[in-house]
Automatic annotation (TrEMBL):
The chain crosses the membrane at residues 12-31, 62-82, 94-123, 143-167, 179-199, 228-247, 259-276, 282-300, 307-325. InterPro entries: DUF6427. It comes from Pedobacter quisquiliarum. Keywords: Membrane, Transmembrane, Transmembrane helix. It comes from the Bacteria. The keyword RNA-binding does not apply. This is Beta-carotene 15,15'-monooxygenase.
Amino acid sequence: MINQFRTSNPINLLLLFAYTFFMRIVLLVEIPDALNFEFLEPYTKFFLQIPLTSAFSPTTNVIAAGLIIFIQAIIFNIIINNHGLLPKPGYLPALLYITGASLFMPFLVLSPTLICNFLLIWMMDKLLKIGKSQNVIMIMFDIGMIIAVGTLIYFPFIVMLLMLWLSLLLYRSFSWREWVSGLVGFITIFFFLGVFYYLNDNLGMFYKIWLPLANKFPATFKINYNDYLVLVPVSVMMVLAMIQLRDNFFRSFISTRKAFQMLFFMFICAIISFYTKPNFRLYHFLLCVPPGAVLLAYYFSNASKRWFYESLFLILVLAIQYFLFV
């Protein structure tokens, strides 16, 4: 299967579409009685009402989520190939994106993070352009606005603001205009939001938006390890990918090295941002899928022992299906 998706054969699009819904077969076989979908944060619903949650039956919810994942995978695949992060273009990024977006049951249905991944993929594309552009002020401004829109949908997305400056540290020499422009883009969106709250005599509610940023990072975690056993094969692949990346690191283009460092920071930001939402759900970690999928695709595009990497991927797919059904 991996060998098939290493190529740019157009038939892979049909295979990816079928694979997307195969990974969701557990929900298609036994549709839940009800699935709740909260599209926006409460502070966004105050001024923007979208009658979306009631419009989706459980069946429509599952199918719509599958279609969104498929569309995101194709966009993601185009971006990774355009930036040349893999040895040769193919459909491995899309395959690994769909696989990563099928790890847990909450990943299979509509969620705010699923919508935010459109913004995260768009943001990833812009960040990868920083090292190739002479003037990045407008790029940073756009990224700041993208993060602000993501924060309106799902508050923990705000932690991606760190990526503005981490990326500049990696790609650019210091320029205060570039460091400020992204923040200005972010503030622009929330300035208009603040004006709306002020005109409706709810400025105190606007202040409460930012209170989760003062949350303490949890010192203890309550984890049911049985729920996360599916991550064992993923962890093995990630370790192998990092070993592969280390071996090729100084033989790669400088832009490729910096790109993978940037994606690593994005992966970490996606993980740690959960602390800003005390009642966060497992679907939060869907934000880790885009940067994680690039690393996995890098491993499978460079792996040489076919029997090993094909078996490893098959084990992952079977493990996902087993833990979804049980």
